[in-house]
Specification:
- Residues 555-582 are annotated as: Disordered.
- Residues 506-687, 723-753 form the Aminoacyl-tRNA synthetase class Ia domain.
- With 969 residues, the chain is an alpha+beta fold.
- Strands 14, 15, 16, 17, 18, 19 and 24 form a seven-stranded mixed β-sheet that branches. A four-stranded antiparallel β-sheet has the order 1-2-3-4.
- Strand 30, helix 18 (632-646) and strand 31 (659-661) form a beta-alpha-beta unit.
- Helix 22 (807-825) packs antiparallel against helix 23 (829-843) and helix 24 packs antiparallel against helix 25 (866-875).
- The chain starts with 6 loop residues before the first helix and ends in a 9-residue tail after the last strand.
Length: 969
């Protein structure tokens, strides 16, 4: 007789047949559907639907095609659970009920939790799956803290000014406001589709006059305190884009956007005096709960150093003294006797004064070349050093020697004094330069105090001064340690007028003006007759951006706003004199410097933020974003915050208590094979770079893993290159979250992004990998709701029962609670998900499913997968949303490990141990001992004369002489 059976028999052979009862048998086709919950788990996570099998002569054959035909006929898409119905339902519920609105009228006696994502820029490309990584993490924290009774502030808004929108407007003729608003709508829609619990009533955008009124107000406060000023400074000018670019916007001498040539040129610009806050920005880093790597980057960017400014008198090409002195900054005044040349930056203001006629052309050509490089390129340690002799000399004040003055781009006009004394024996850059241009190298420092002639490399460490004495000028530091020698040189320089002690910073003042249209107008006018700058009155704010039809850069370098003639021409309200408005705009960084404050009080038209609200909500408790903002955004925001602290607007010295950098999600792995000129595959480990080699992308289905490497399936000797790249449109590896949500649901996307690996690490996207968490959610759904009906739908309620849980069930639950709680607190979200998966695996073995246990589990799941959790909570008999239900707390009683290790002795000698439950009886302990492989050899065939048992302490078996089986007294 042929008995129909299903995957239950194959995959879970130990499952009792009574639990495999959901079978419908068809006599017509001699096939059946298995609707058992045990038939959904061939991989351990559950499959996507039930299987059909046909019985023919004792052989089981899958009728997949038959199922597909039925699906096509009924147009039913079978899903692991009905996320397509659940997710829109609960998103509407949250929106209709303002579930996550943070009221202004809150109980301030309760603890607060302010969790914030770094301000997103709404690009035309929309979100890709890398963006929700950080957003999901902050949402988990926000939901978790709400359930713990905190007042939670979790807002969202848009950093919407910027060059990309303006360039798109120029290319298409569309006003940037329209494209920006369209992009914002798309971003908002995508974020809402992922179920993030943002307070959308607090949504802000930097392009709204109600917002940038206060950005302009902050600028006026900076201006009042002398922290905003105009100066002519060298800038990165891009003629094609018609604007100044920041250093980070220039790559290899061209603009990052568009690849247009960039040159260095002096321009009159607005600057913010961030250097006035350098020491405070440095010192206050120590108290922040930030990644050490971020704090180190800021320390290095600020670059505080102690040293001296030294004066070098200029000599002409005939050795005559000129009435010009070059001031250099050095951190190593102890090496002044080793200075064998000076280097000045190409943009040094005094350079024209000490260039000989013979060298004039060479210097001008070199300055032109240097103007095309960014500061980052010029100071790159690995690059070859270049320079040109000025034709003039300088007098070393320590030894009176005439040393040549060189022009080289590895010295920046914006750092120090724009000039250095070069000591090639004790500085690697100076050494390379001296070797290349045959400049003398003099050793003036030795680590062991002995004179050295080793010219193979520079020694940059500290040591004992040698060759460093000139009694004629009263300076002798021979034999002194570096620090002592440096102090003595500084004292001598100050006494003789040759220099002074100086603290210096790499940090430069913030170049604040941009020659763009799409930015915040700067609230300043210039009187026509005197060009004197006059700040707008605060009552005139906001100064709105005028409408323009032509946003293209001007041929003269004037900003596009100069075309708004009627807007530019104005009068000074105090004097009545004709005036012109500032036509530069603020950089994109401006609006993002203080937006976290506006979220606290977004609709306040009278002040930037209400004092009481700021005191309650400050500082931001957790701030999540990419490491690429480690320096500029975070440094600028800290600077503005400290200014606002000084004028009494904010109550804390720092804006962000804790910063977390999420890792990058890379595109799916690409497999690359090498081919020779004849089209034959070449293994990656034997490629000869001197031969003509081509690369070919290999589809994943033609690849297999071999150890830690990847090879061709058809030829395992061919080693492939496997590489994942950052998602970008140019690489074509962007994954749209809309597609993932459509196929697997938002909860699956959220869960997968948290499950991929540690939150702070970079991870590689795998669309196939999301199926595992999708199956887990399906298993959770079916465990609580039950198996699907024949048409693929589910019952309205739950299969759980109102019965007291067993001790084992409570133990499993509370261990899960403890683990999930601990991992959320530690932002180790992936291991928290693992704990929930383990719980579901354990629950599938239970005969009865107590409702109370699964209510607590659903609450645990809800921060991660809120849509399915809300629906399950509802089906478990609850009428209100779980958003503010108390988060479960682990009972320590159920966390205790009730099993103990019991030593077992044979005739008084310890021979092993067994694992027993607390309260284990003597008979049970002895039975376990006889089953232990190690102890069995001592007991097999032996008679037991006596057993000595101390509960929880020891079992001692005394053997007798009879040759009888173990276990008989």
């Amino acid at each position: 007789m042929n008995i129909p059976f299903c995957l239950c028999n194959q995959i879970l052979p130990f499952t009792p047949f009574s639990q495999r009862k959901f079978l419908s048998f068809s006599q017509k086709s001699r096939s059946f559907n298995c609707r058992s919950k045990f038939c959904y788990d061939p991989s351990g996570f559950g499959s996507l639907g039930c299987y059909r099998f046909e019985v023919r002569k004792g052989v089981i054959r899958s009728s997949v095609s038959e199922v597909q035909e039925e699906k096509q006929e009924k147009q039913v898409v079978r899903r692991a659970y009905p996320f397509h119905e659940i997710e829109p339902k609960w998103q509407r519920y949250w929106e209709d009920h303002h579930s996550f609105q943070t009221s202004d009228d809150i109980d301030t006696s309760k603890p607060k939790f302010y969790v914030l994502d770094m301000f997103p820029y709404p690009s035309g490309a929309g979100l890709h799956v890398g963006h929700p990584l950080g957003y999901t993490a902050t949402d988990i924290l926000a939901r978790y803290k709400r359930m713990q009774g905190y007042n939670v502030l979790h807002p969202m808004g848009w950093d919407a000014f910027g060059l990309p929108a303006e360039q798109y407007a120029i290319e298409t003729g569309t006003h940037p406001k329209f494209t920006t608003l369209r992009n914002i709508n798309r971003f908002r829609s995508q974020l809402k589709s992922l179920g993030f619990s943002y307070d959308w009533d607090r949504e802000i955008s930097t392009i709204e006059p109600e917002y940038y009124k206060w950005t302009q107000w902050i600028f006026l406060q900076l201006l009042k305190r002398g922290l905003a000023y105009q100066a002519e400074v060298p800038v990165n000018w891009c003629p094609a884009l018609g604007t100044v670019l920041a250093n980070e916007e220039v790559v290899d001498g061209v603009s990052e956007r568009g690849g247009h040539p960039v040159v260095r040129k002096p321009m009159r610009q607005w600057n913010l005096r961030i250097t006035a806050y350098a020491d405070r920005l440095l010192q206050d880093l120590d108290d922040l709960d930030w990644p050490e790597s971020v704090k180190d980057m800021q320390r290095n960017w600020i670059g505080r150093s102690e040293g001296a400014e030294m004066e070098f008198l200029v000599l002409d090409d005939n050795g005559r003294e000129r009435d010009i002195k070059i001031t250099v900054y050095t951190t190593r005044p102890d090496t002044i006797f080793g200075a064998t040349y000076l280097v000045v930056a190409p943009e040094h203001s005094l350079l024209p004064s000490f260039v000989s006629p013979v060298q004039s052309k060479s210097v001008d050509e070199y300055k032109e070349l240097a103007s095309r490089k960014s500061d980052l390129e010029r100071t790159e340690l690995q690059k070859e050093k270049t320079g040109v002799f000025s034709g003039y000399y300088a007098k070393n004040p320590a030894n009176g020697e005439a040393i040549p003055i060189w022009v080289a781009d590895y010295v920046l006009g914006s750092y120090g004094t724009g000039a250095i004394m070069a000591v090639p024996a004790h500085d690697a850059r100076d050494y390379e330069f001296a070797i290349k241009y045959d400049i003398p190298i003099r050793w003036v420092l030795n680590p062991d105090g002995e004179e050295s002639n080793d010219l193979l490399k520079a020694y940059a460490g500290e040591g004992i001064a040698i060759n460093s004495s000139n009694l004629a000028v009263g300076l002798d530091i021979n034999g002194l340690l570096s620090k002592v020698a440096a102090s003595k040189v500084i004292e001598w320089a100050a006494r003789t007028g040759n220099g002074k002690k100086k603290v210096n910073y790499k940090l430069r003042d913030w170049l604040f003006a941009r020659q763009r249209y799409w930015g915040e107008p700067i609230p300043v006018i210039f009187l026509e007759d005197t060009r004197e700058s006059v700040p707008l009155l605060e009552t005139e704010l906001p100064l709105a951006l005028p409408e323009l039809d032509d946003f293209t850069p001007t041929s003269t370098g004037e900003p596009p706003l100069s075309k708004a003639g009627s807007w530019v021409k104005t009068t000074d309200p105090l004097s009545g004199k004709p005036a012109r408005r500032e036509t530069n705009t603020m950089p994109q960084w401006a609006g993002s410097c203080w937006y976290y404050l506006r979220y606290m009080d977004p609709k306040n038209s009278k002040e930037l933020v209400d004092k009481k609200k700021e005191i309650y909500w400050s500082p931001v408790d957790v701030y999540v974003g990419g490491a690429e903002h480690a320096v500029l955004h975070l440094l600028y925001a800290r600077f503005w915050h400290k200014v606002l602290y000084d004028i009494g607007v904010v109550s804390t010295k720092e804006p962000f208590k804790r910063v977390i950098n999420q890792g990058i999600i890379l595109g799916e792995v690409q497999y690359m094979a090498y081919k020779d000129s004849e089209g034959n595959y070449v293994s990656a480990d034997s490629v000869n770079t001197s031969e003509e080699i081509h690369q070919e992308i290999i589809p994943e289905e033609k690849v297999m893993k071999s150890g830690d490497a990847f090879v061709l399936k058809t030829d395992p000797d061919i080693l492939l290159i496997a590489r994942a790249h950052k998602m970008s449109k140019s690489r074509g590896n962007v994954v749209n979250p809309d597609d993932v949500v459509s196929e697997y649901g938002a909860d699956s996307l959220r869960l997968y992004e948290m499950f991929m690996g540690p939150f702070r690490d970079s991870k590689t996207w795998s669309t196939s990998g999301i199926e595992g968490v999708y199956r887990f959610l399906g298993r959770t759904w079916r465990l609580i709701v039950g198996s699907p009906l024949p048409d693929g739908s589910f019952i309205d309620g739950t299969v759980t029962i109102d019965e007291e849980p067993t001790s084992e069930q409570l133990k499993s639950l509370h261990r899960c609670i403890a683990k999930v709680t601990e991992e959320i607190e530690g932002t180790r979200f992936n291991t928290g998900i693992s704990a929930m998966m383990e719980f579901i695996n354990a629950a599938y073995k239970w005969d009865k499913l107590p409702r109370s246990v699964f209510e607590d589990f659903v609450l645990l799941l809800s921060p991660y997968a809120p849509h399915i959790a809300e629906e399950l909570w509802f089906r478990l008999g609850n009428s209100a949303s779980l958003a503010y239900e108390p988060f479960p707390e682990a009972n320590p009683f159920f966390l205790k490990d009730s099993s103990i290790v019991l030593p077992v002795q044979i005739n008084g000698k310890t021979r092993g141990t067994i694992q027993v439950e607390e309260g284990c009886s003597e008979d049970d302990a002895f039975s376990l001992a006889t089953q232990d492989e190690k102890l069995f050899k001592y007991l097999d065939g032996k008679s037991v004369k006596k057993r000595i048992f101390v509960p929880g302490k020891i079992l001692n078996v005394i053997l007798g002489p009879q040759n009888v089986k173990a276990g008989v007294r």
